[in-house]
Amino acid sequence: MAKLYFHYSTMNAGKSTILLQASYNYRERGMQTCLLTARLDDRAGEGRIASRIGIGEEAETFTPEDDLFARIEARLAQDDLACIFVDEAQFLTTEQVWQLVRIVDDLNVPVMCYGLRVDFRGELFPGSAALLALADEMREVRTICHCGKKATMVVRMDEAGQALREGAQVQIGGNETYVSLCRRHWREAVGDRSPA
Hints:
Rossmann fold, 5 helices, 28% helix, cytoplasm, nucleotide-binding, metal-binding, transferase, Thymidine_kinase_CS
């Protein structure tokens, strides 16, 4: 039986590396995969999933308007897909997560999603919230804070290296913009922020 998987973490935990390795394992055994990534994240170039360690692969892109079920159903009419891989899954809409559910349940194709759980404010992304609610299996990809504890939060830094507390939920950036921290050090960085 196919399943919907959600591999989540903070920035720089190796999610894209794990995705690329898993896709490679399928292809090495003669099975086709479909790689999807958010169009708005073009840090490695549009339509490309890349890891900080230097590996990368071309991918199809999605926008919030795309019907992923219809796209995969059309692909399956032409190709036999063994697995769907979705990078930057936090940028999925709730409706798109339900479309992935239908791919798993109705088309019997496994879907592996990789993305951030929370934003720099400590709030769930809509796509991540839906995946946490609907995924058959969830796996945390771990990384560490500068203190050695598990990092579960991320801060967004300004040009002066100060942690931001406000701003749009989505701002594309890498190590120059985001730092993964444990909850204690995140609270310290953002001034022990309390919920509004």
